[in-house]
Amino acid sequence: MHEGHIEQLPLICPRCRSPEVQSPLELQQIFKRDGGFILEGFLVCSFQGCQMAYPILAGVPIIVKDVEAWWNAEQSKLSSVACGTPQIRVYFDALSQSEPNRHAEKALLSTYMESHYATHERAPQGFGGFADSGVFWERVVDIAQPDTRHKHALDLGCSVGRCTFELARFSELAVGIDLNFDAVSAAAGMQRTGTVSYERRKRGRCFETVQMPYSPPQNALFLVGDALDPPFLAESFDLVAGLNLIDNVSLPLVLIGQMDALLRDGGTLVLSSPYEWRADIAERAEWLENDALDAATMVRNILEGGLFPQMGLKYEILSELLDVPWVLRHHDRYWSLFLVHLIKARKRELAS
Ligand SMILES: C[S@@+](CC[C@H](N)C(=O)[O-])C[C@H]1O[C@@H](n2cnc3c(N)ncnc32)[C@H](O)[C@@H]1O
Asked: Which terminus of the chain faces fewer neighbouring Cβ atoms within 10 Å, N or C?
């Protein structure tokens, strides 16, 4: 994170937050920096009764209610182990290769780095032009582009950050949050180094190193945070995006409610999803579709306030695409093609 970003946009302590108390975090300790980037340190809750400390690791603030639970769940999945000496690093890298979880995380990182930053020259014939992941990002940029520059934009479930960087091009500050530390730190690392660098999975456990120059905008802030409990004040953003996230959270309807709460009146909501619901992520009762209504229709109706009117949503649908190709490359012989629903809606002003 850049030192100045915390002054631009208050980050709110998720631990002591209540309707009455919304305490901003303060940068209290800096252990390691690289120019204007803070690499290691602590953000501390300014409320005397709380004073919860949130670590900054590899340039990424970790702002979740229970940092210990997050760490216990995530640390075994981190694909890189931060160790001081090359000998120890080689030792741990070798251990990581034999660890199933770490292999899965490394493969996942490869898939998303490819999806966000690669151009697939060797795409399978059968996918035709679909296999260029650029098609998806072009549609996202087309739909998200505002008439006037945004102050603050938010990308929930940002993964390795492509959408956040795109939003930053037309915002004063764009924020990307995700629970996956590997992904968020890859995004923050690209911003700091001006290089896209990752291990691209060829097959099985065989990876090749990819490196290319990249000039991402500097007005982007990446942090680990929960989209269902985001560390921001209500109505902080002019645009809130959630790309391919709604079917990845346990409470899809709560996600829509949180996106709405974070948007100012008149703000823009951008949502995309293939609605690939999974019972191990969200109970079936939470899925936003049923025998009578497909998910695209249901999400549109929810935003317009026809379904679940108690949520108080009153969005105007500005544009909508029903089947935008979204390609994920897992390895040379394994690709997935989704057709996602991409929707842009405006939060109506209270008076209208
Ligand atoms: C299918 S990926 C989509 C990534 C990216 N938006 C894109 O379209 O390429 C879903 C992402 O959401 C993240 N995620 C899942 N649940 C989350 C939550 N509750 N809060 C923040 N991120 C979450 C995952 O870690 C993952 O990076």
From this structure: C
